[in-house]
Structure formats: C-alpha cells, structure tokens
Amino acid sequence: MKNIVYFEPSDTVKFDIERYENSLNKYAKVPRGAIEEAVKQLDEYETLHVSRLVSTGVGLIEQFSDEDSARKYYDDHSKYFGEKFERLRRITGYLVGTLDRWNDGKRAEESQRVKHSVNSCVDDLVRNAKLQDQMLAYNAAYAGKTE
Length: 147
What we know:
Layout: E1 3-5, E2 13-14, H1 17-25, H2 32-40, E3 47-49, H3 50-64, H4 67-77, E4 89-91, E5 94-96, H5 104-111, H6 124-143
Parallel strand pairs: 1-3
Antiparallel strand pairs: 1-2, 4-5
Helix pairs in contact: 2-3, 3-4
C-alpha cells in the first residue's frame, strides 16, 4: 500500500506509518510491531481507501486497550465511511428499523441474539478460512470423496 484515498481520487496522499501510529496512540498504546504487521496485510494494494485503515485501527485499539477506546476511535473517524445508515433487523421474514412495535416475545428473542462488536471485521480472515474448510468438506462429501 503506497497511497490512501480519503473522499475523492484527488484526495490521495502517500501512506505514512508514523502518522498512522500517532493517530492510533491517541486512543491506546499500540506497539509499532503490531501496526507494521497489520499494515503488512494491506500491502498488496497500491491505493487503499482510508476506511480500511480505520477498520484495521479499530481492531488494533481494541486488542491493546478496550472496546470503548475502539468505539471512540471509530466514531471520530466515521466520516470516512460515507453516509450513515439506519440499522435494520430481520425478524421472521420482516425488515424493521426499531423495536417499538415488537411484542414482548420478539423483544426477548432479539435480546438473546449474539451481539457482534465494532471490531467484527478483524475476524473475517478466520471466519473465511473456516467457511472455506466447511465448503471443501461439503464438496468432498457431496462428490463421495473422503480424505
């Protein structure tokens, strides 16, 4: 990764790891080695949108501090993610925005669901690897092959 785009292609600037480190360290003390390792995964890109760096930063801050610091970092940098969106929930086939018209049973069901943190994007590589393993196992079983 050599360039960062903020809003428009004309906003492209050179990536500066020290500037990124200083930005993260306002919220948590993140070791330089951890930052370099995280950035190394993004190195395959010539140009990268700043929102990807913010997502990576959220993960690093949460890893070396706490979720509140990560949420603060995200909130302070959320302007790079474009327009805000309303949260939608799917319940028995219907999409709804708020819970105000739900009955007690549906509210109880929603409260028992697993809540994912702001940092769920960091787990994508692990999740994708597991899904690929499941897919290979399914394909092998479907084709009648066993390993």
